[in-house]
Amino acid sequence: MMIRFILLLNLFVTASSLFAATQTLFLDNATERVVVEHDPALNPSSGVTIEAWVRPTTISNCQTIVGKGFQTGYWLGLCNGRIRYYSNGTGTRRDGNSAVSTGAWRHIVVTFDGSERRYYLNGDLDSSASTPGSLAHNTDPLGIGGEGGSATFPGGLFPFSGYLSEVRLWNYARSQDQIRSTMYQQITAAQPGLIAVWALEGGEADRFGAFHSARPEQHDRQFSNVRLGASRQSIGFASIGIGFRIRDRLRDAHSTFDLR
User: What's residue 43's pLDDT?
Assistant: First the structure.
């Protein structure tokens, strides 16, 4: 695949390479994903909410949206089009009810408070279940668009195929009203309970290898140890158009191009 974007801390970017339009992350390779090295903050203890906008290009097999080791940690993804979430490793998986189709943006959320898990699709409750248990704690890297690591690399990554944007991690189980109140907004500053948000839209933070994350106790903190998985050389972005905002994600029109 043509090199579209170089994601290194020491990257030099010329004025001609700046994006004229807002982008969104596009993955189409079995080993492409964004990797965030382990940080204690990525292991919430009392509750968790994971959010993401997704637009898969295929719904076959299992695909990772956010994964921190499904065998010992938490994992959110799609399996044959349905939401699947592991709350704490092997034996804690549960699938949602509704099937996610290709060719359209969908907002996917899972919440877990240690007692009940809830899945949301476009702001509506997809399924809920009482599944008491502790939250996951491990030292695995967090992956976006694929598992952060794999003992059988490149197998076991369960890569995502398609578009991902505005991935968020919270340290509590958000309510449906809270989810709906921000699902069409971009979060650029610290909010109570917000561990991290990765816009994945080719902005300045993306460009220099520190996907912006906001934490309530450290405003404007960035996870500086974010890197591209696999080759760590290229990452794809797709142009949605000038003036693009999250609320426009329900529109189907988009185009792709390569940066050279």
Answer: 94
What gap in Å lies between CA 31 and CA 135, rounded to an integer? 28
What per-residue confidence (pLDDT) applies to 244?
A: 33
Q: Which domains does the chain have, with CATH numbers?
A: 15-241 (2.60.120.200)
> Angle at CA 163, nearest 5°, toward 120 and 160?
80
- pTM greater than 0.90 (yes/no): no
Using CA atoms, how far apart are residues 12 and 244, in angstroms rounded to an integer? Answer: 26
DSSP letter (8 states) at residue 93: E
**Phi/psi at 40 (nearest 5 deg)?**
-55, -30
Residues facing 142 on adjacent strands? 36
**pLDDT tens-digit profile of 92-133?**
999 999 999 998 999 999 999 999 999 999 999 999 999 999
Token match 């921000």: residue?
182
147, 157 contact by CB (below 8 A): yes
Peptide bond before residue 154 is cis, with ω within 30 degrees of 0? yes
